[in-house]
Amino acid sequence: MEFGYKVGLATQADAGSIAKLVNTEYDKTKAVLPLTEKEVGEWIGKGWVAVARKEGGEVIGCQAVTTWPISGWHEFRSSVVKEEERGKGISMELKKYLLDMVHEKEPGAIFVGLKNEYSKGQEVLKSLGFAKVSTDQIPQHVKEEILTVGHDQVWQWYVLGYTVASQAENHELVQDPLALKNVARNTQ
Q1: Which of 21, 26, 102, 175 is the most exposed place for a label (fewest CB within 10 A)?
Q2: Which residues contact 91 (CB under 8 A, 6 or more apart)?
Q3: Which one, of 108, 110, 109, 111, lies nearest residue 124 by Cα?
Q4: C-alpha to C-alpha distances, 151 to 42, 58, 130, 143, 144, nearest whole angstrom
C-alpha cells in the first residue's frame, strides 16, 4: 500500500459504500448520476467495477466500465474519489487497473470516454493514450448505439484502440491494437 490505498475489483459488499460515495458527489456537483445500492450491485455483477480502499477497507474511490451491447466498446464511466483523497492519482490508478483487466480478457477491446468540455477526466484519458476524436470520425453504428446506452448528449469522444487514419479521405477511425498493447505495457 505504497500510496495509502489499494485498488481492486469491487464486491457486492461494496455496493452500499459505492452508492454513498457516488450520491455524495451527485449532491455536491451533479456531475455524476445518482445510483441506488441495487443499481451498483448490478454493475458489480457485470464485473467491471474497481474500487480504491484505504488500509482499513474504507472505499475512497470507484470507477466502472460498461460494455455497449451492439459494438462491444467499453465505456469508462465517471470515476468518483472522496473529496479529501483527490490529487493522489486514484482516478488514474482505477482506470489503469480496469484497462488491464479488460485487456487481459479481451485483447482487442476498444475503449471510449465521453466528456464535456469542463471535465477534469479529459487529461487523465489523454495521459492513458486515449485520442480526442470528432463525432464525424465515429463509426455510424456506434453513433446510433450511444442513445441506447443511456446518453442523450455527447460533448467529446475520447477513444483508445482506434486511431485516425489520416491518409484516408474522410479521416475515419481504424482499429489500432498496438495502442492497446502500449497501454497494457505502460500500466504494469
Answers
A1: 175
A2: 61, 63, 79, 81, 121, 124
A3: 111
A4: 19, 31, 20, 11, 11
Write out pLDDT tens, residues 65-79: 988 888 888 988 878
The CA-atom distances, in angstroms, between 4 and each of 79, 88, 89, 107 are: 19, 10, 11, 31
Q: Which domains can be identified in the chain, with CATH numbers?
A: 5-186 (3.40.630.30)
pLDDT band per the 50, 70, 90 thresholds, residue 150: low
Q: How far apart are CA 145 and CA 71, in angstroms?
A: 8
Q: Note whether 91 and 79 are within 8 A (CB).
A: yes
Mean pLDDT of 105-114: 86
Distance separating alpha carbons of residues 42 and 2, to the nearest angstrom: 31
Q: Parallel, antiparallel, or unpaired for β 111-115 and 49-54?
A: unpaired
Q: 115 forms bridges with which residues in the sheet?
A: 156
Residues 6+ apart with CB under 8 A from 127: 92
> E-strand spans in 15-172?
49-54, 59-67, 74-76, 80-81, 111-115, 131-133, 156-160, 162-164
Q: Could you give the CA distance from residue 72 to residue 52 in angstroms, rounded to a whole number? A: 26
Mean pLDDT of the chain: 79
- The alpha-helical segments, DSSP class H, found in 2-89 are 15-29, 37-46
